[in-house]
# Entry
Amino acid sequence: MSQTAERVSVRVPAKINLQLAVGPLGADGFHQIGTVFHALELTDQLSAAPAESLTLTLTGAESAGLPTDQRNLAWRAASLLAEHGGVPAHAELVIDKRIPVAAGLAGGSADAAAALLACDRLWGLGLPAGELAGLAAQLGSDVAFALLGGSAVGSGRGERLRPIQGGREFHWVLAVAHGGLSTPAVYAELDRRRGSDQAGAAGDPVAAVTASGVLEAVASGDPGLLAGRLANDLQPAAIALAPYLAATLAAGQDCGALAGIVSGSGPTCAFLARDEAHARTLARALAGTGSCRQALAVAGGNARATVSG
Ligand code: ATP
# Structure
């Protein structure tokens, strides 16, 4: 064990999926997926300080209504790490929540990843990255990617990752919706639409993603090329549950986006811009249409969790 810290602060990114191919429903009730995760410069910040029990406080623009007990993924992450490391789960956790909730941006997963990194440092455990990734996979499908950042191919339920070396930066506008969407509800709608024979399910979702040319587009740094390679099997199901998304996607195209896509299980839509200046212009135009709660210009592809303290 290394020396314990006084207060540790971690900044951790949200994600979008540049592609999301969903395999058939498995006997275990889950789907195998093939995806390209892309970390965004839209972050939550979690701090952990020494304490005599485990406490959690949430602040920030997107914190309303979130649980501050064992139902919170950050709490669960700290508890799991303590059990694994054989130490008492004593920490004062504070999350400054900027990532919209139930938005398809994996904000809860980001907070779980942040709690693992912060408490690992606070308690002086010094676990190797592979061991932290194993705990992350137990907490949720997207937690391991929040630890890794950048851009990566995800398989299994999303917890098995292959980093995309040399992945480049792209500029996006996120159209944040007024409400949220439940990920299980969107998958259930996808299964309902596919029917009992699971028509249209990707036989090998990772092969489908790899064959699409999206990885070459990410490595090229050319937004024009990437625009034609964005794809999401969950999009029709998300639109069926939240029909206003069709109007949001149309508004983004009308405002000059190179392409638009529902992020993960939605309802956030991600619009690809030519560059940073175009993203700023696009965000202003999209906000003016009233088709979303908020339009945020963000960079993606280089974002990574950072630990200080
Ligand atoms: P994903 O894309 O990983 O499926 P999401 O971005 O759609 O997830 P989250 O913001 O992670 O959704 O929230 C999903 C649910 O998890 C929420 O309804 C919320 O109550 C619960 N939750 C637990 N802990 C957190 C947390 N720290 N931040 C956000 N949501 C949390």
